[in-house]
TrEMBL record:
PANTHER family: INNER MEMBRANE PROTEIN DEDA-RELATED (PTHR30353), INNER MEMBRANE PROTEIN YABI (PTHR30353:SF15). The keyword S-adenosyl-L-methionine does not apply. InterPro entries: DedA-like, VTT_dom. Keywords: Cell membrane, Membrane, Transmembrane, Transmembrane helix. Belongs to the DedA family. GO terms for cellular component: plasma membrane. The keyword Transmembrane helix applies. This is Membrane protein. Residues 202-227 are annotated as: Disordered. It comes from Actinoallomurus iriomotensis. It is a multi-pass membrane protein. Residues 36-160 form the VTT domain. The lineage of its organism: Bacteria, Bacillati, Actinomycetota, Actinomycetes, Streptosporangiales. It is found in: Cell membrane.
Length: 227
């Protein structure tokens, strides 16, 4: 998953729309949500929008449409293949969670489609379960659209705000770092000057005063005068 995340962060321009839409669509339509949660893709897309690599309004429309259409495809797959789909090897590993999802669908009906939108595994399988249970498509579509709008807009805006906040924090941190470096330099220079002054003072105290040597010529003249 880390490789996909890194690849998304390095995308630019219209390619972002296509890749994010494909990941969101494939989450339920192709059960790709078992491998890569769709909210990760849209949060990253929101961050990219905060960096002005894509338009936020267009991104929101693309994500919501991809979510609704992808779930509709998942619904049709479940309606057509039914229990045979649940018996496939990839889904056998998640029998317990599938049982929980089916129980939620029985208790909550179409509202379970909305709730399932906010859990990675349920988001991947709930449309197929709704189709397998022969839920009327009109009812499914209403709650699917409500969930897609709430989920898509919420996580994308969250990524956008996080990206904006990160840039502001980075700018603030840059200014603080510059001030800290300046203070460290000033303190360092002050310590160096203090130590230099202290060393010079110590050298001055320990240096002996020069001893005057008698002038031998003056002594000789005095001695000659006495004679």
């Amino acid at each position: 998953m880390g490789h996909i995340t890194d690849a998304l962060l390095h995308l630019h321009g219209p390619v972002i729309y296509g890749v994010v839409a494909a990941l969101v669509f494939a989450e339920a339509a192709l059960f790709f949500g078992f491998v890569f949660p769709g909210e990760t893709a849209i949060v990253i897309a929101g961050v990219l929008a905060s960096q002005h690599r894509v338009s936020l309004p267009i991104l929101l429309v693309v994500i919501v449409l991809a979510a609704v259409v992808g779930d509709s495809v998942g619904y049709e797959i479940g309606r057509k293949f039914g229990d045979r789909l649940l018996d496939t090897r990839p889904l056998r590993k998640h029998r317990d969670r599938l049982g929980t999802a089916q129980d939620l669908l029985r208790r909550r009906g179409a509202f379970a489609v909305f709730i399932g939108r906010f859990t990675a595994l349920l988001r991947a399988i709930m449309p197929a379960l709704a189709g397998s249970a022969r839920m009327p498509y009109g009812r499914f579509l209403v709650f699917n659209a409500l969930g897609g709008i709430t989920w898509g807009v919420g996580f994308t805006i969250g990524g956008y705000l996080a990206g904006t906040a990160f840039e502001q924090v980075a700018q603030w941190a840059g200014r603080v770092l510059a001030v800290v470096v300046a203070v460290i330099v000033v303190i360092g220079v002050g310590v160096w000057l203090y130590r230099r002054h202290k060393k010079e003072a110590e050298e001055t105290e320990t240096t002996p005063e020069p001893v005057s040597v008698p002038d031998l010529r003056e002594d000789l003249r005095e001695h000659h005068h006495d004679d």
